[in-house]
C-alpha cells in the first residue's frame, strides 16, 4: 500500500534493527520533507564530540565558546551545516518543519549560539547538524515497505531532551514496542 507523502513528513524515522547501514544503524531521523521527488531529513542522535567554536570558520572568529557541539546530520553534503532549533519564536529566516522544530543556515544565528554563555545555550534547544539524509524518488517508500523504518511523531522533547545514546530505544518504547521484540517483516510498521 502506497503512503501519501503528506502522511509521512514531518515525523521521526526510527531505524529497524536489521538496518545495518552504518549511517543509519539505530538512527533517529527527523524527516522534514517527503514528496514524489524524494525525501530529506536529519539524523538527530549522533553527536560528534567536536565543539563548533573549534571546527567552524567564521570571520571574524567567534568571541566565546558556549560549548555548542557538532552533530552528524546524515551522509549527504557533510560539509554543509544546518541549525535545528526548538525554541519559539524562531529566528527570522528560519523554516518551520513541525511544532517545535525550525531549520536555518543563518551564520548570524550560528554566531549567536557559539558566543552565548553555556548556561544560555543549555536553555536553548538546538543542534548544529553537518550533512543530511536524502532519498531519491521512491527510495524511502521502498525502505518503508521493506520495514527498514518505524514511524513516530516528530517530538521536540524526545530530540532535544533525551540522551542521544538512549534516544532510539526511548522512541521505540514510546510507541509501545519492546525493541528486542522487533523482527524483520514486510510492510510499514
Beta-strand segment tally = 10
Going by CATH, the homologous superfamily would be VC0467-like
Strand content: 25-35%
CATH level 3 topology: VC0467-like
What does this entry look like structurally?
The protein has 189 residues and is of the alpha+beta class. It has a single domain (5-181), classed as 3-Layer(aba) Sandwich (VC0467-like), CATH 3.40.1740.10. Helices cover 22% and strands 32% of the residues. The chain has 6 helices and 10 strands, in the order ββββαββββααβαβαα. The chain has helices spanning 52-55, 107-115, 118-122, 139-145, 156-161, 164-174; strands at residues 11-15, 28-35, 38-43, 47-51, 69-72, 76-85, 95-98, 101-104, 126-135, 149-152. Strands 1, 2, 3, 4, 5, 6, 7, 8, 9 and 10 form a 10-stranded mixed beta sheet that branches. The radius of gyration is 17 Å and the shape is globular. The mean pLDDT is 91.
Please give the structural blueprint.
Elements: E1 11-15, E2 28-35, E3 38-43, E4 47-51, H1 52-55, E5 69-72, E6 76-85, E7 95-98, E8 101-104, H2 107-115, H3 118-122, E9 126-135, H4 139-145, E10 149-152, H5 156-161, H6 164-174
Give a nutshell description of this structure.
The chain has 189 residues and is α+β, with helices and mostly antiparallel strands. The protein contains six helices and ten strands, in the order E-E-E-E-H-E-E-E-E-H-H-E-H-E-H-H.
Identify the notable features of this structure and list them briefly.
alpha+beta; VC0467-like; single chain; 6 helices; 189 residues
Amino acid at each position: 500500500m502506497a503512503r501519501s507523502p503528506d502522511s509521512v513528513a514531518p515525523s521521526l524515522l526510527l531505524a529497524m534493527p536489521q538496518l545495518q547501514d552504518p549511517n543509519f544503524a539505530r538512527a533517529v531521523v527527523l524527516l522534514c520533507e517527503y514528496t514524489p521527488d524524494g525525501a530529506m531529513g536529519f539524523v538527530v542522535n549522533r553527536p560528534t564530540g567536536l565543539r563548533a567554536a573549534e571546527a567552524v570558520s567564521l570571520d571574524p572568529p567567534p568571541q566565546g565558546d558556549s560549548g555548542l557541539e557538532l552533530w552528524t546530520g546524515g551522509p549527504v553534503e557533510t560539509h554543509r551545516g544546518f541549525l535545528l532549533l526548538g525554541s519559539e519564536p524562531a529566528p527570522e529566516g528560519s523554516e518551520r518543519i513541525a511544532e517545535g522544530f525550525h531549520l536555518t543556515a543563518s551564520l548570524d544565528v550560528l554566531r549567536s549560539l557559539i558566543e552565548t554563555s553555556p548556561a544560555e545555550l543549555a536553555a536553548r534547544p538546538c543542534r548544529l547538524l553537518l550533512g543530511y539524509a536524502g532519498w531519491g524518488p521512491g527510495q524511502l517508500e521502498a525502505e518503508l515497505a521493506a520495514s527498514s523504518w518505524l514511524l513516530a511523531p516528530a517530538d521536540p522533547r524526545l530530540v532535544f531532551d533525551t540522551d542521544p545514546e538512549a534516544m532510539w530505544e526511548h522512541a521505540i518504547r514510546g510507541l509501545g514496542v519492546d525493541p528486542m521484540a522487533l523482527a524483520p517483516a514486510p510492510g510499514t510498521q
